[in-house]
């Protein structure tokens, strides 16, 4: 028996690098739970539970706060990306709480990227827009996560002030050998170039995938080829 109200999550991080040079430009924070019996558990398991019992806000804040504290002293060019789940985008205090965490950790707003999936925008686009606008007004950057898996991508891209598009891993997998994902990735890259939005490709696992993305002009990549999610301390310095 585990009292969920007492759990502490770990902030794992996955590096994001430039496609061309491999230079680290940021880290995505990915929450993990070290369960006393089962070991390391991923967010797909505990986030739905945390949402059900109203703990998602506190747990998320804990993960984001830890990452910001650890990364505050790093190279100022390195950004930290955090994920926000759909239920968090219905919380009217989200923006204020993130801004407070930035102040408490002396972390510059310009170095924080908030990743939002399209499904988060679906429930109440106007409410989501007000939160997103508050974040933007503070200088925080916004990424549209899992791009291509939602359904009205183009209207979201136009109507909300995103700074970055993240191509979903499902399109990156086998991009170098299959025509269909390759065509989708090319289309996303040409769309984003027309909109002057940089692209991060997720889930890059092979050198062939990296080479394809570089040829097609993708700016940044992340994935097991570059580095798996690790405890944040193992990437420090
Ligand atoms: O880290 P993977 O390692 O298993 O993540 C699974 C899903 O959980 C992804 O959709 C990711 O965006 C989401 N996720 C990871 N960490 C967090 C977090 O701290 N908060 C929220 N809300 N979602 C997260
Ligand atoms: O929804 P979001 O894009 O935030 O989720 C990222 C998810 O992808 C996390 O579960 C993370 O652990 C996982 N991930 C990151 N890089 C790779 C990769 O190269 N391959 C696979 N299979 N999963 C990855
Ligand atoms: Mn993400």
Tags for this entry?
single chain, 237 residues, alpha/beta, eight-stranded mixed beta barrel, 9 helices, 39% helix, globular, binds guanosine-5'-monophosphate, binds manganese (II) ion
What is the beta-strand fraction? 15-25%
Arrangement of strands in the largest sheet:
1-2-4-5-6-7-8-9
| Low-pLDDT segments, ≥5 res | none
In total, the number of strands is 10
Write down the overall mean pLDDT: 92
Sum up the overall morphology in one term: globular
Distance between the termini: 38 Å
Can you list the ligands bound to this structure?
guanosine-5'-monophosphate, manganese (II) ion
Helix residue percentage = 25-40%
Q: Quick one: biggest sheet?
A: 8 strands, mixed, barrel
Structural class: alpha/beta
Rg (C-alpha, Å): 17 Å
Total of DSSP H or I helical runs spanning 4+ residues: 9
H-E string: EEEHHEHEHHEHEHHEHEE
